[in-house]
């Protein structure tokens, strides 16, 4: 390993393609526990295992806090790593001048920001999103939406969340923005869950919308604007498997009414895996002559952690690792930058002194001062208290619990309906052109700017006369490094904070 590192050379060429993988809630503890879990599933010593992306040549650490919160949510963090700007908790694609739920403030042009998806389209690149959550959920929405509230996923949601207290006349829900506004309406690939947010309410419909059927809108838009292109709407794994991506130009795949099912609870016959969706997305996009930018999210890691379902969280992390592995196999390190990171941490800890190769999901077999053992994994906050609520305040006896249950709730210290996020820094792994930009410890918003720099794309909209003022070419070690208006963007960010 050291010899390999000693021979490592920087790739300073421009990235034709960029893929950002986002493990939602994938904390450092999650990575450690998942690699051990992976090894133990294979009957090997898990501690020395690796997840696919842990073998990338460059790693860094990202600071995840929001402008107004020490602990981030998926909305403010998505705005950071996809738009290059830190903002307030619960808001998407807007500056910190917009408070949660403030529709009037969010429509002011100066308060709205663009994402790397928009920058890529300005540069003539194809774009797409893949997720195991609703495609309108906070993380993917960071790539295309501008909203004062992350829960405004449909027009019905806007009315429900605002409670009639906010004037919503000028604001559009996230699903509508995806289908009708730039950059969402130009996405070549949209895959994930959340079908109900696009369908109109009706007698034989599970849809939530009160205005129109956005799926029909998507079909009509592709026929009108790209009549000679092939556009397919799919809802099942079989339809995905039988779609020839080499002959398809646009795909809208909505595989669940809401979030997709956890792999351990899913129907493999009807629901595709993250690995399958990722592979198909790359196969569609790789024929683009100018390259592409693709966002892929393993969103159910976070959902499982919220329920303190450690086994499912680790399994979803392994599914995420498989998707990254496929992306590596389908692309070249010479022209494709792959960045793997997380938006925020969770409160799961790995503690005690379990013996080497002890079941990571089991007991430590150490005895505490109350003469009872405890699980290696536990949560600081969650729905299952560590202590029994009685006058003697006894701790939960985990030896009497069925830890083999897929959805066993791991004990927590603080009793709360669900686990909260953690404020820890998160890891960043990078491979491909300019991947060395992602080393060190830095603000999360620099990830978006670093990806743009690596791909040689500007964060500013094109003008009538193609200006080169935003791109300065410097010769270094015989290589051309594209430096975009990063300093200007960083000054803008500092001003917002």
From TrEMBL:
Identification of the protein by name:
Alkaline phosphatase
Q: What class of enzyme is it?
A: hydrolase
The cofactor binding remark recorded in the entry reads: Binds 2 Zn(2+) ions. Binds 1 Mg(2+) ion.
User: What is an example of a GO molecular function annotated in this UniProt entry?
Assistant: metal ion binding
Source organism, top-level taxon: Eukaryota
Which residues participate directly in catalysis? 74 (phosphoserine intermediate)
| Family label | Belongs to the alkaline phosphatase family.
Q: How does it sit in the membrane?
A: Lipid-anchor; GPI-anchor
């Amino acid at each position: 390993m050291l010899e390999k590192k000693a021979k490592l050379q920087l790739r300073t060429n421009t990235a034709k393609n960029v893929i950002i993988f986002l493990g939602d809630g994938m904390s450092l503890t999650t990575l450690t526990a998942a690699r051990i879990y992976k090894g133990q599933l294979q009957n090997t010593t898990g501690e020395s295992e690796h997840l696919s992306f842990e073998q990338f040549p460059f790693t860094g650490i990202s600071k995840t806090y929001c402008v107004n919160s020490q602990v981030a949510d998926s909305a403010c963090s998505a705005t950071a790593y996809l738009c290059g700007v830190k903002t307030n908790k619960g808001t998407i694609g807007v500056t910190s001048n917009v408070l949660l739920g403030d529709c009037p403030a969010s429509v002011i042009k100066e308060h709205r920001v663009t994402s790397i998806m928009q920058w890529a389209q300005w540069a003539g690149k194809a774009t797409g999103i893949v997720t195991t959550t609703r495609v309108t959920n906070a993380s993917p929405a960071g790539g295309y939406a501008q909203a004062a509230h992350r829960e405004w996923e449909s027009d019905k949601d806007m009315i429900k969340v605002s409670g009639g207290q906010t004037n919503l006349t000028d604001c559009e829900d996230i699903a509508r923005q995806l289908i009708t506004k730039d950059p969402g309406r130009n996405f070549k690939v949209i895959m994930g869950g959340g079908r109900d947010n696009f369908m109109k309410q009706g007698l034989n419909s599970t849809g939530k919308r009160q205005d129109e059927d956005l799926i029909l809108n998507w079909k009509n838009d592709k026929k009108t604007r790209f009549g000679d292109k092939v556009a397919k709407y799919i809802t099942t794994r079989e339809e995905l498997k039988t779609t020839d991506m080499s002959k398809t130009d646009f795909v809208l795949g909505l595989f669940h009414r809401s979030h997709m099912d956890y792999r351990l609870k899913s129907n493999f016959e009807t629901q595709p895996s993250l690995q399958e969706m990722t592979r198909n997305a790359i196969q569609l996009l790789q024929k683009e002559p100018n390259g592409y930018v693709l966002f892929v999210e393993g969103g159910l890691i976070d959902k499982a952690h919220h329920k303190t379902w450690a086994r499912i969280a680790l399994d979803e992390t392994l599914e995420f690792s498989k998707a990254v592995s496929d992306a590596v196999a389908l692309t070249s390190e010479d022209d494709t930058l792959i960045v793997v990171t997380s938006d925020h941490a969770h409160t799961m800890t790995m503690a005690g002194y379990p013996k080497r190769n002890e079941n990571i999901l089991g007991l430590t077999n150490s005895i505490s001062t109350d003469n009872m053992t405890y699980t290696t994994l536990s949560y600081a906050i969650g729905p299952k208290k560590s202590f029994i609520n009685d006058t003697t305040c006894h701790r939960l006896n985990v030896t009497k619990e069925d830890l083999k249950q897929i959805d066993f709730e791991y004990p927590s210290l603080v009793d709360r309906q669900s686990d909260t996020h953690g404020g820890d820094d998160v890891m960043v792994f990078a491979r491909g052109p300019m991947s060395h930009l992602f080393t060190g410890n830095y603000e999360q918003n620099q990830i978006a700017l670093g990806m743009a720099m690596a791909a040689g794309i500007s964060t500013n909209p094109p003008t009538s006369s193609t200006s080169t003022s935003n791109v300065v070419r410097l010769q270094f070690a015989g290589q051309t490094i594209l430096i975009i208006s990063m300093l200007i963007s960083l000054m803008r960010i500092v001003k917002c904070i």
